[in-house]
Request: fold
Amino acid sequence: MRHAELGALDDKPGSLLPREAIISLVVFAILWETLSRLSPALGIPAFAVPSFVRIGESLAKVTLIDTAVTLARVLGALAVSFALGVAGAVLMYVSRPFERYSKPLMRLVMAVPVVSWILFGILWFKWVEFRICFVLMVVCAPVFVVDILDAMRGVPRELRQMTRSFRPTRAQFFIKLMLPAALPGILTSWKINLSLAIRVVTIAELVGAVTGVGHQLSVAQELFSVSDVFAWTLVLVALLFALEGFVNWLEHRMLRWRT
Reply:
């Protein structure tokens, strides 16, 4: 019973950083700071391992507009990808022929490297924002489709038969049963795609954008500023943690019946 209570406490949305994570981060910070001070004696250039003082100075120069632009790109593209994912999963669930014909194409899309999609976007589209949105959608939408379809397939047959006994319309069947029952899988898919989208948008912005975190990383690379790269990387990590924390909060609120 005691172990169950401790597990329940760890699952609360407030416990974002358990003790072990804090200790690991503190140890990493100590090792990094030590290495930055010993780097001249080890023959490592001072700029290669900046101290946390220099990293803090770079963080102070972080522009909120670039952070907001990257966040807007991620959320906008994920919203469109989610809508496409739900539509595609429902169509595959309803129509077996559609699933048999579309799944090989979807696997082909998922097998193409992200760099290739970025190059296609640059060659096909003139507008930078559409390029980035295209790359994010083509990478994230198939993940939504696969996860949501699997979640709907996992709905117990007894529930489906009971719901059909009330003669619902097709829309009511999905709105009242299938999508709510698939909610745990949908939230898990959001967590996966948030991490994926943060990484993909950075690469896309590195290539063609003049705003955003990826563009600032490109500028820092051209200036050989490791502290700036570190600072913008911390911004990306903070964005990801904040977004995942929000999804975890939603999961806790919407799936309280599981606890």
In short: Residues 65-258 form a domain with the MetI-like fold fold (CATH 1.10.3720.10). Residues 1-15 have pLDDT under 50 and may be disordered. Residues 9 and 15 are 8 Å apart (CA to CA). The radius of gyration is 22 Å.
